[in-house]
Structure formats: structure tokens, C-alpha cells
Design a protein that fits this description.
This protein is α+β, with helices and mostly antiparallel strands. It is built from three helices and eleven strands, in the order H-H-H-E-E-E-E-E-E-E-E-E-E-E. The protein has two domains: about 30 residues, no CATH class; about 110 residues, 3-layer Sandwich (Rieske Iron-sulfur Protein). Helices cover about 10% and strands about 30% of the residues. The structure holds FE2/S2 (inorganic) cluster. FE2/S2 (inorganic) cluster binds next to loops.
Length: about 180
């Protein structure tokens, strides 16, 4: 453990759990390792989210999970594919329960806020009942998404992490 950061297993301790003929069961059961993997792998690298063929038409969406986060992989009406957090920007309710579908917008089942397929807040029923609804403040959160030969990758890293050079010489296309 360093400073006040999260508890982590040291690289040498992790390496010792892997042998050519077997891996130690702690790799599957240690909550510290699990948290470390969620943070460093699923929270800090490019991860596969899906393929463009899964969302061929504007409005098509698929529910995805990246680490502990629920996502919506959506092709917007502008043709761009985005990965939006499947979490209402008002009070955090899950927006979409279906695994896949086609919708031009997403309406929260709790208070009825409606978000566009680009994640922007489009409509609030009875807006006078809310204060401080500033433009952009309540849009859905979204990840950086890169497309490489139809394969879509996203990252939860706060700053876009480097594209792995081993994944190909060509640069990906940044879709959002
Ligand atoms: S929690 Fe979604 S509109 Fe209030």
C-alpha cells in the first residue's frame, strides 16, 4: 500500500500465484486482486465493447458492461457510435433494462427525463419543479470510444490512455 491510495498486491506477489502448470485459487477469490483488476485493467485500459455490425442503424443500442459500470453502446442519429453510461444523470437510476433495441432517445423510468441517442438531456417534464438545470450539466456521461476495423473499444480512464502499438500499426478512428 502506498500513501492513502487503494490497497494493492505487489507485482511479485501476483507473479508468484501463476505457475506454468497451475494458478493459485487466490487469483479468483482475493477481493484485493479483484478490485485491483477492476481498477487497473477494466478501469485503465482500452477494452473491447462490441462490433459496429451490432449497432448498424441509427438508434440501435446494446447494453454492455465494463468493469463495474453499465453502458449503452449506441449508434446516434448522426451515425457516430458512442458508449453512454446507462445511468440517469438526475438520480442515477438505470435508464435501459433491455439488452438491445432501437430507440431515438432514452427516457428514465423514475422522473421521466429524456436523453437523446447522443446522451444529451432533451426533455424534463415540468422543468419548473427543478432548479439549476444548466445546459450540459445533466447530459449522460460517456466514454472515449475508438473503432479499429469495425471493432469498438472504450476506456474508463479519466484521460484517454495510449492506443497499444501491438494492436496494429494503423491508428484507430475516434468516434467520441
Ligand atoms: S432519476 Fe432519472 S429522471 Fe430522476
Amino acid at each position: 500500500m502506498t500513501g492513502t491510495g487503494p490497497v494493492e498486491r505487489a507485482p511479485a506477489e501476483i507473479r508468484a500465484l501463476v505457475r506454468p502448470e497451475h494458478v493459485h485459487r487466490r487469483l479468483y477469490t482475493d477481493p484485493v486482486l479483484f478490485d485491483q483488476e477492476m481498477r487497473r485493467v477494466f478501469g485503465g485500459t482500452w477494452c473491447y465493447l462490441g462490433h459496429t455490425s451490432e449497432v448498424p442503424e441509427p438508434g440501435d443500442f446494446r447494453r454492455r458492461r465494463l468493469g463495474r459500470r453499465e453502458l449503452l453502446l449506441v449508434r446516434g442519429s448522426d451515425g457516430a457510435v458512442r458508449a453512454l453510461f446507462n445511468r440517469c444523470a438526475h438520480r442515477g437510476t438505470m435508464l435501459v433494462a433491455e439488452d438491445a433495441g432501437c430507440a431515438g432517445s432514452f427516457t428514465c423510468p423514475y422522473h421521466g427525463w429524456r436523453f437523446g441517442d447522443d446522451g444529451r438531456l432533451r426533455n424534463i417534464p415540468v422543468p419548473s419543479s427543478y432548479t439549476d438545470i444548466r445546459s450540459g450539466r445533466f447530459d449522460l456521461g460517456r466514454l472515449a470510444v475508438a473503432e479499429y476495423r469495425g471493432f469498438l473499444f472504450g476506456t474508463l480512464a479519466a484521460t484517454r490512455c495510449r492506443w497499444p502499438s501491438t494492436w496494429g500499426r494503423s491508428a484507430p478512428t475516434w468516434t467520441s
